[in-house]
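Dear Dr. H.,

I hope your travels went smoothly. While you were away I took the liberty of generating a structure for the chain from your last submission, since the lab meeting agenda had it listed for discussion. I wanted you to have the full record in hand beforehand rather than looking at slides cold. The sequence, exactly as received, is reproduced here:
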Amino acid sequence: MAPSEPSSWNRRVLPAGAFQFALIAGVTQLKTSANALVLSRFESQALPYLYLLGALMTASLTLLPRARPDAPTESPGIL
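The corresponding predicted structure, in token form, is as follows:
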């Protein structure tokens, strides 16, 4: 292996790892605060319906077609 390959690999992996860590930490904090907000306003029986609604919305967004059939990305047109 050439000496420049490991440093090139580290320059790509370390920022990606830091981003993944920050993303998971942020989602964890947001989900905890959202659950606390729901529990402060409603009964605990509302949480399963909240999760089901979120899952249904996610599933429906994944089924939407692309804006144009020849579009380079796989994202739905409304996003």
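Two observations you may find useful: The helical segments are 4-41, 46-63. The mean pLDDT is 82.

With kind regards,
E. W.
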